[in-house]
Amino acid sequence: MHVSAIIAAGGRGKRMNASISKQFLIIKGHPILYYTLSTFEIIDQIREIILVVGSADLQYAREEIVKRYRFKKVKIVEGGAERQDSVYNGLRELSPQTDIVVIHDGVRPFITRSIIEKSIQAAREYKAIGVAVPVKDTIKVVGKGNIIENTPDRKTLWAMQTPQSFDYRLILEAHERARREGFYGTDDTVLVERMGLPVRVIEGAYENIKITTPEDIVIAETLVTLGYGDFRR
Ligand SMILES: Nc1ccn([C@@H]2O[C@H](COP(=O)(O)OP(=O)(O)OP(=O)(O)O)[C@@H](O)[C@H]2O)c(=O)n1
Ligand SMILES: C[C@](O)(CO)[C@H](O)COP(=O)(O)O
Q1: Which residue positions hold the site described Positions MEP for the nucleophilic attack (predicted)?
Q2: pLDDT tens, 3-28?
Q3: What are phi and psi of 135, to 5 degrees?
Q4: pTM of this structure
Q5: How many domains does the chain have?
Q6: Range of the domain at 27
Q7: What is the ipTM of this complex?
Q8: Which one of 7, 15, 83, 216 would you pick to mutate in the ligand 2 pocket, going by the greatest count of ligand atoms within 8 A of its CB?
């Protein structure tokens, strides 16, 4: 079984409002991407890791991430305008022997080895898996004039995270179909959902945060200090 990973790191991080792309911001001495990649590198069954970065960050990623930290399995690929375009570019670069592909956000450094391995195992069985957590807040659908339209039953609501793991041929077909039809989604599982095929969720972890806005940096520093995550320390 050939397992590959795609780390999506082709965004600029506009909501972070920093002077560099947020995935290169330093948390407790190391760039965010270092933490994410080092957790993937230690998983033996993952044979290759495609790191997708924006055109302006290609050289920096090569020098300051791959060379500096001596990542052995990481190959860099240029990203696209949207996350979905970046993942697609990564999918096209995978070895044709790939059976299962694990897609993960570069800015979720607190993912654990155990969750990644569970998602791979589940994808072998079910072909399309998203890691998610049950929502803790009450969620409202809000319409015009900020008027609440309805309150979905919380028991049915999960917040999607990454990794999302798939049968390689299935997710490639899902991406190609979405591109032909001009559909853009905010994660990869929705591309399989719209083919009418089942996608399962497995439980992730609340600490598997996506570093998005400035206050997430403070949370991330605290999580590193408290020992969360499986990265090389
Ligand atoms: N064209 C893009 C846009 C996003 N991503 C990646 O997708 C992940 C999740 O996206 P998000 O947190 O929204 O990152 P950005 O798009 O960079 O953030 P923003 O929307 O604030 O600009 C990030 O690791 C990001 O680098 C990507 O690979 N290619
Ligand atoms: C894929 C994702 O991380 C699942 O929560 C998320 O949808 C990415 O969204 P963004 O629009 O790139 O922040």
Answers
A1: 154, 210
A2: 999 999 999 999 999 999 999 999 99
A3: -70, 150
A4: 0.98
A5: 1
A6: 3-226
A7: 0.98
A8: 83
